[in-house]
Every structure is written in structure tokens, then in C-alpha cells.
Design goal:
The protein is built from 19 helices and six strands. The protein is mainly alpha-helical. The two termini are 43 Å apart.
Length: 508
């Protein structure tokens, strides 16, 4: 939970960044342009502020929506088989509608924003690394290296081959850079993560809670190897590298494993049970989360969730609901993760004598259900952090690596660990890959992992799973069935317009 001093600190830092770069134009900066002053980075305070500025790209950062909303919910979760378009369409967030229906184009503002934010992180990390000596400020250099690796990881997963930039560079030179093969991109990612792992403490607490440590770096490295092992690279030798990397941290990660799933996503437990999260705080400081504004259909006037949110709460998205088959299976299994992730309905009014129950499966994992909360000032000012890497991810990735390396017997204890917390029985025998896939789907509802899991598990599995889901729910909504094209996002058209040596991703 953020203290008043922490909120003041983050607010001041964000204010400094806005003054120096102009918040209203912050996404208009060319993503890899060298426009930083040489006089900056002259003290530890300035260097720490610079690192905080890289993290800030994951928040709203002068815009209405944060990165978690744009990327992990709209462009990832909503392209998977978790949420479907429900009772109707609104005029709000047409990009969201197009993403869910596989109608997205290179002109999508959401796609442009995702691409720009990630390259902005890379640009700012490059500036910090170029303006500090290799033997000084090792922790901050390591954080910058981690964040650069993270940005390239998401670019590679979502856009495929991209340009590699590791130093400040002028736009004239930047537009001549080619799209490097994925192998080259991952080589750079691995180098950055290995550097970060050496120069960071395992985790940071107190005033530094929420900043990445070596556990996060090694966890992301394990994820990278698992991604490389799957589609489209299919480098099966990476399974052994993933196993070795994750085995080295599994005991430390287990120390941050919360035995009670229901308390994982609460304010009082923030930064206790995760490894890397986007930090949010209410209070009209520009540091709140926008994700709860996209729970279900757009609202006007009074809140559609009067018992949960402040009275003037409004929604921003389409009527997207959680797969009823998934919900029914979790109910039948008494899976404890369901109640902590999804609500199956809500009351239409506070008037107990004149209200009706609305049956609707909606993700409420990151909604602060407190209609007396006076700090939440708007639909995009919610306080809950968004986890990018948490212990369960490491545990299940490690179990998957063991299964793929013909060590399913060893993987059983880790999958059982996840199942026990969910209130499920132990597996009767050695786990299969299907057992692993089922646990990952239920464990990470609403966290944007499902789409990328499906892709790395294979082109055919991804396309067939997504097509069957779309066919079941969206046959009458003027969408289209996904193809291999939809396993990547399009390169933004504004990027192609400035580069003669880039080709658009297949099918766009």
C-alpha cells in the first residue's frame, strides 16, 4: 500500500518529468530520438529520477489509459479465449471492439500507443546507460537494462522482428535500421537480463518496494527461454535453459508465494507477493489505474456497480464478459480463484427493496470495491497494482519446463502447489501438458497471459482455440475468425511511412 510520503514522491517525480518533456505531447516523442540534455544524470537523485521515468511509461504517463489496460487487457486478454463480446456494441473504444473481433488495422491508436510506449522505455534506458559510467550506479543501470529487456520482450511477442537500438540515436539514423530477426532480439534481451540479475538485490522493500530485483530479472529470463522454445522460433533447446534458470530461483520465489489467493490482489498486500508490478495509486495524482473502467459495457449517469464503486463512476469499454464455460467449470470445481477474479453478477441499486440482480460474468480482480473511498476520483484513478510477474508464473513455467524436459514426475509438486491453494485436489498421477495449461488459464484470469501462452504452444493450437471461441460467441457480430496473421499485431502505419526498409506483418 502506498504511503502519503510515497505518493508525494511519485507525484513530484511525475511533475518533474511532465515539465521537462511536456505531458500532453509525451507520446509524440519519436521513440528512439536522442533528445536528452547532456547536463542531466549529474547526480544520484537525477539518475534515480530517470529510472523512475522509465517505470512511469507503464502508467498513464499523461494519457487517459495505462499500459496494463491498453496492452494486457485490451490487446492481449481480449484477443484470447477469456472474454467475449456480450449483449451489444457501443461507440466507446472502437479499438477495443476491433481487437476482440480481429479487425485491428495498422492505424489503431491502441497499437500505436503500445509500440510508442515500449520504444520510449528503450530510448530512456539507452539515454541513462549512455550517460552513466559502467562502474557507477550499477543498480540503476541494472534497472534500466531490465526495463529495456522487458520492452523488447513485449515488442518481440506482439510485433515480431523489430529494430535493435542500444545507444542514443538521431531520427535520421533510426529510420534506416532494419527489423532484426527474433534470434537477434532475444540475444539482446538475454544480455540485458543477465546483467540486471548480477547487479540487483533479489527484491526491494520499504521506499523502494515495487522496483525490480534480481528475482524479477531471472524470472523474466526464464519466461524468455520458454517463449523461445515455443512458436514461432521453436528452439526446443531453450527448455533446458529455462529449467536451469528457474531452478536457480524457485526456492526464493516460493518465499513470496501467498497461500491465500483471495488476498493476493488487495491493497494491504501490494508488493509483498509479486516480483514485478505496475504501481498505481489513487488521489488524483495521475497515478491511478484505468483498467477497472473496462469491466463491462459503457455506462452513463449513476454507477452500474453501486455497491462497489463511487457514485459517479463511469465505464469506457464494450460489453465484454468472461467465458461462461470457464466460469461454470470453476464453479463446479469449487475453485477459489474464481471469487477473487470474477463476479457473476451485481445489484443494480443500493435500494434493497427496488433493485434487481444483473447476471453477468465480469473480471473484478483489479476493481477496488469500496463505494466510500474518497481518494478514487475518476474511472482511471483506481489504486490496485497490476502484476506482470508473480511467483505462480515462475512456479508454473518451471513445471512446464520440467514436463517438456521429460521430468513430469518432478513437476507434479509444483502444479499441486498451485492446485492446493485453489482448493483443488492433488493430481492423481504425473501431470500432463494439458494439466499445466488448465492451471495457467485459471490462475491468471485478467492478467493478459493467456494469449501469449496460446501462441507459444503452437500456431495450430492458437488459431484453432481462438477460432473455436470466436465461432461460439461472435458469429453474429461482424467480426472475423482469427488466422496466423492475428498472432501478431500490425506494425503501426506511421512507422512504415518513415521507413522504406520495413515490411508490414503478414496479412495486414
Amino acid at each position: 500500500m502506498k504511503t502519503k510520503n510515497q505518493l508525494k514522491k511519485y507525484g513530484i517525480i511525475l511533475f518533474i518529468l511532465c515539465i521537462s518533456q511536456s505531458c500532453k505531447d509525451i507520446l509524440d516523442i519519436k521513440p528512439i530520438e536522442n533528445n536528452v540534455s547532456d547536463s542531466f544524470y549529474s547526480s544520484e537523485l537525477e539518475i534515480k529520477q530517470a529510472v523512475t521515468g522509465i517505470y512511469a511509461r507503464l502508467g498513464k504517463n499523461g494519457t487517459n489509459t495505462d499500459f496494463a489496460t491498453d496492452y494486457y487487457l485490451l490487446a492481449s486478454e481480449d484477443r484470447s479465449d477469456i472474454r467475449y463480446l456480450g449483449g451489444g456494441e457501443t461507440s466507446a473504444q472502437n479499438d477495443q471492439l476491433d481487437l476482440r473481433k480481429y479487425l485491428i488495422t495498422p492505424f489503431s491508436g491502441t497499437v500505436v500507443s503500445i509500440f510508442s510506449r515500449l520504444y520510449a522505455m528503450i530510448k530512456e534506458a539507452n539515454n541513462l546507460l549512455a550517460h552513466t559510467k559502467e562502474d557507477e550506479y550499477l543498480r540503476y543501470r541494472a534497472e534500466a537494462s531490465f526495463l529495456r529487456a522487458y520492452a523488447y520482450t513485449e515488442l518481440a511477442r506482439s510485433f515480431g522482428p523489430v529494430a535493435i537500438v542500444t545507444q542514443p540515436i538521431e531520427n535520421g539514423a533510426a529510420i534506416t535500421l532494419p527489423r532484426e530477426p527474433l534470434e537477434v532480439v532475444y540475444t539482446q534481451i538475454i544480455q540485458d537480463l543477465e546483467y540486471a540479475a548480477v547487479h540487483l538485490d533479489p527484491v526491494y522493500t520499504g521506499q523502494d518496494a515495487g522496483r525490480v530485483g534480481s528475482l524479477a530479472a531471472k524470472a523474466l529470463l526464464g519466461q524468455v527461454y520458454m517463449t523461445m522454445a515455443g512458436y514461432p522460433l521453436n528452439d526446443h533447446s531453450a527448455y533446458e535453459k529455462a529449467e536451469t534458470t528457474l531452478a536457480g530461483i524457485i526456492n526464493e520465489v516460493n518465499q513470496r508465494f501467498n497461500l491465500d489467493y483471495s488476498t493476493l490482489f488487495t491493497l494491504e498486500n501490494e508488493n509483498k507477493y509479486d516480483l514485478f508490478s505496475i504501481q498505481f495509486a489513487s488521489g488524483n495524482l495521475g497515478l491511478g489505474s484505468s483498467l477497472p473502467g473496462y469491466i463491462t459495457n459503457s455506462g452513463s449517469g449513476a454507477s452500474p456497480f453501486p455497491e462497489w464503486t463511487y457514485p459517479t463512476y463511469s465505464q469506457q469499454g464494450q460489453d465484454l464478459r468472461v467465458d461462461s464455460v470457464l466460469v461454470r467449470e470453476m464453479i463446479n470445481n469449487n475453485d477459489k480463484r474464481l471469487v477473487a477474479s470474477v463476479d457473476t453478477g451485481y445489484w443494480s441499486s443500493l435500494d434493497t427493496e427496488n433493485r434487481s440482480w444483473v447476471s453477468r460474468n465480469v473480471i473484478t480482480k483489479f476493481l477496488e470495491k469500496d463505494n466510500t473511498n474518497e481518494k478514487i476520483s475518476s474511472w482511471n484513478d483506481f489504486p490496485r497494482n497490476f502484476p506482470i510477474i508473480r511467483p505462480a508464473d515462475v512456479i508454473l513455467l518451471y513445471a512446464e519446463a520440467l514436463i517438456m524436459n521429460n521430468k513430469a514426475v518432478e513437476a507434479k509438486m509444483y502444479i499441486d502447489q498451485i492446485r492446493t491453494r485453489a482448493g483443488l485436489s492433488l493430481l492423481s498421477g504425473s501431470p500432463t501438458l494439458d494439466d499445466l495449461k488448465r492451471e495457467r488459464k485459471f490462475e491468471f484470469i485478467g492478467e493478459g497471459k493467456r494469449f501469449f501462452d496460446l501462441v507459444r504452444w503452437g500456431e495450430d493450437e492458437a488459431v484453432n482455440t481462438l477460432s473455436n471461441f470466436a465461432r461460439h460467441y461472435h458469429t453474429n457480430t461482424n467480426g472475423q475468425l482469427p488466422t496466423r496473421r492475428d498472432l501478431l499485431l500490425p506494425i503501426p502505419q506511421n512507422e512504415l511511412n518513415t521507413r522504406s526498409n520495413w515490411k508490414q506483418n503478414e496479412g495486414y
